[in-house]
């Protein structure tokens, strides 16, 4: 019962309030609370900032899903050994995931500033000179993608490792007896049996990417301009800076629906793949 009460207060109540607020024009400064129906949602159809933020989120999500899973599988295969060195490496590889996203953001911010470690390294080897990784719109989104993937790869690696450890040794012996090379072994043995891990990792990445806020806040603050402003940042700016709580609530509801639909589709599609395999 205490757990249900906490779930209701911390999860369900905010969602219900968001749904209610999305149908009102609200200003807490002037105590305005006017019912406007679906006008807030209709305004979103003409709000360019919303489409821009949605595009940024979708771009980051696609990059995170592809690269986090790919690198996670590679690391899992490399670390799937019983040597003490690799046991230590498994612990180290998971460390980024347990860090706070805001800590990750500020860490990468110090690395990617104009006079940061990365530019100093590139300058030392005369590769390039003082790239503005966070101040140039061409590189800012790439920088955020790197920080996001760096943390998610840690989670993906651990999940894939756990799945590889559960592959029966009899199957591996049978594949070796058949004379399969490493590529064939991965394609016909490892990859099919990694299907549950792929489902878990993809769902976690989708949820993390859609609500992306703190890493971007620490790295670019949504800039330069608004070229890296995610939907979560747009919602915060609309609600607290512009004092348009009802309009911000409608964006929050759309974000919740989009993330819910995307996650549901991913679960269904990847779940069918598990059954088929």
Question: What does this entry look like structurally?
Answer:
With 277 residues, this protein is mostly helical. It has a single domain (47-276), classed as MetI-like fold, CATH 1.10.3720.10. Helix content is 75%, strand content 3%. It has helices at 2-21, 39-44, 48-79, 84-98, 101-112, 117-124, 137-165, 169-177, 182-193, 195-210, 214-219, 231-241, 245-276; strands at residues 24-27, 32-35. A two-stranded antiparallel sheet has the order 1-2. Helix 3 (48-79) crosses helix 7, helix 4 packs across helix 7 (137-165) and helix 12 runs antiparallel to helix 13. It starts with a helix and ends with a helix.
Quick rundown:
With 277 residues, this protein is mostly helical. It is 75% helix and 3% strand. It is built from 13 helices and two strands.
Average pLDDT number: 84
N-C termini distance? 40 Å
Whole-number total of structural domains: 1
Shape: globular
CATH superfamily: MetI-like
Give me the secondary-structure category.
mainly alpha
Helix fraction bin? over 70%
Classified by CATH, the class is Mainly Alpha
CATH topology: MetI-like fold
H-E string: HEEHHHHHHHHHHHH
Poorly predicted sequence stretches spanning 5 or more consecutive residues = none
How many beta-strand runs?
2
Q: What's the helix and strand layout?
A:
Layout: H1 2-21, E1 24-27, E2 32-35, H2 39-44, H3 48-79, H4 84-98, H5 101-112, H6 117-124, H7 137-165, H8 169-177, H9 182-193, H10 195-210, H11 214-219, H12 231-241, H13 245-276
Antiparallel strand pairs: 1-2
